[in-house]
Design a protein that fits this description.
It is a single chain. The mean pLDDT is 92. The chain has one domain (2-158): Glycogen Phosphorylase B (Rossmann fold, 3-Layer(aba) Sandwich), CATH 3.40.50.2000. The radius of gyration is 17 Å and the shape is globular. Helix content is 40%, strand content 14%. The chain has six helices and six strands. Strand 1 (2-5), helix 1 (14-25) and strand 2 (33-36) form a beta-alpha-beta unit. The longest helix is centred in the C-terminal third of the chain and has 14 residues, at 145-158. The chain has helices at residues 14-25, 55-64, 74-82, 103-113, 126-133, 145-158, and strands at residues 2-5, 33-36, 48-50, 67-71, 86-90, 118-119. It starts with a strand and ends with a helix. It is an alpha/beta fold and 159 residues long.
């Protein structure tokens, strides 16, 4: 199963859904596709769309997915990485009315350079990125939170 995550941002992200649906219709994608669509209004005979789901259902969908295709929201990307999933991140872009600014491009760039994710950008073939994901071995993600706790704990213990 491929899990497509659009998050909860109030602006629509139909560009990604149109591309995924086209690949499903043409047979490039054979997997079942489940979409957490948030506020994006979209109808499809090829994908199961769920606007909002509970934390438990979201967790289960991440667990069951062989591939995560997600907007470049920090929470969605990191959840996929922490679960050891292959993640393709797609930045919502201001010029398409998908977000208020282009900060998601920066997030994609950081995770891409660190070897954690693949990305799909305008002008590229999503089919090729999905094909590349089959052999992609993401570098494990380690949150900086634990390092921060260790620094604080060491400071307290040395005082």
């Amino acid at each position: 199963m491929i899990f497509v995550v659009l998050g909860t941002h109030e602006l629509p992200f139909t560009r990604l859904l149109e591309e995924v649906e086209e690949l499903k219709q043409s047979g490039v994608i054979e997997d079942e596709i489940i979409v957490q669509s948030g506020n994006t209004k979209y109808q499809s005979d090829y994908m199961t769309l769920k606007p909002f789901v509970s934390y438990e259902e979201m967790d289960d969908l991440f667990d069951r997915a062989r591939l995560i295709i997600t907007h470049a929201g920090t929470g969605s990307v990191i959840t996929g990485l922490k679960k050891g999933k292959r993640v393709i991140a797609v930045a919502r872009l201001k010029k398409h009315g998908e977000h208020n600014d282009d900060h998601q491009l920066e997030l994609v760039d950081v995770f891409l350079k660190q070897g954690h994710i693949l990305s799909w950008n305008e002008g590229e073939s999503l089919a090729e990125v999905i094909s590349e994901s089959d052999a992609f071995d993401p570098l494990p993600f380690q949150s900086g939170k634990q390092k921060m706790f260790s620094i604080i704990e060491n400071f307290i213990n040395e005082s």
